[in-house]
From TrEMBL:
TM stretches of this protein: none
Protein name as it appears in the record: Galactose-binding protein
Boundaries of every DUF5126 domain copy: 129-230
Keywords: Signal
SUPFAM superfamilies: Galactose-binding domain-like
The DUF4959 domain, residue ranges: 22-126
Origin species: Flavobacterium glycines
Domain (DUF5000) ranges: 254-400
Amino acid sequence: MKRIIKSPINILLLCLTFVFAACSEDRGPEPLEHNSNQPAVVTNITIQNLPGKAKLTYTLPTDDDLLYVVARYTLENGTPMEAKASYYSNSLLLEGFAGGSTTEVKIYAVNNSETESKPVVVSVNPGPAPIFDIFDSLNVQPDFGGIRVTAANPTKEEIGILVMQKNIQGDWVPLRTSIYTSVDEIKRSLRGFESVDQEFAIVVRDKWLNYTDTLVTTIKPLFEQLMPKSAYVGVHLANDAKTINNAYPVSNLFDGQFLEYWGSYFTDRTIDVGNHLVTFDIGAKTKLSRLRLWQFSEPIGGQRMYYYLGAMKKFRIWGSNTLNDGTLDSNWTLLGEYEIKKPSGLPYGQENNDDLLAARDGADYEIPLDKQAVRYLRIECLENWIGGKFMAVSEVHVYGNPNF
């Protein structure tokens, strides 16, 4: 069941408190010049109304000491706004509108003495902000242990998709796992929910605190459990990669050791023919939801490097219910192909705190809902962070429903 609430402002989430810093008595540096003569005004103003924005193009005055042009306006939600452009530009972009209404804008030319011209007043009428198209594209469906939220954000707006549930007082409050993103294709699972009917409310917000209507829906999350690691058993097929000196058994993938090398799994880095594969049995045929992997982190210079050497950068997960000689034929179903991206974007060998936070607690690699239930799994390393094929993995958790 889905309902659309037309007045999202009445939910507790949107009762925001703003704290504004008091203005200091110190006004800062004064202009070096003291020309109190008003500059001439901008002319030939044209307006291009855009979704949630308006672009102004104009002709600059010819004053020798012109410094910049400023436009002042107020958003529909009451927020005062100011947009500036230097004398090197002849256009201004006004942002933050919810859209669908007319707004008055005052435009000033300003000289080096911070003396403003008389205002030129224009009216803009931006189209609806991108959040409304994003809201229209929202799709919320059951997922293992929670819900799956998808939406289209083709212009990569900075948005929040606020997912809410009611507290004990009956007020809607946002989940800490609400989605904040600027990617063009939003696909996110929110987990940790019991498999019972639950009501969720979802609203889209932009950084100017414009809000869409609220989607209210009742969803029953799919049952999910961590498959008991005591049932996992390493399997060696003919084309599985050798480990380093055979000293690191497959069982290291599920031994509960998350950092140290003696509890991790390494394939032989001297062999670079074909992709490196490792196989194991999870103990029961299971409708899989995700694998959570912890990459081995190299201790370098007193810190852990997670996107380094044999940590996987590109890999595949395969599944089957029968074992063969290891040939990846129709006996094996490709459950997913993945590429790990370093959040910081820093070059190889350089990592920051964002990278650490993204990797330290492992990462989920989701299995599409339409994939068949399987018992045997294979991880195939296509490329590691140093550009080779060998893999270095600390731990694997397998989640799913054995009672599908």
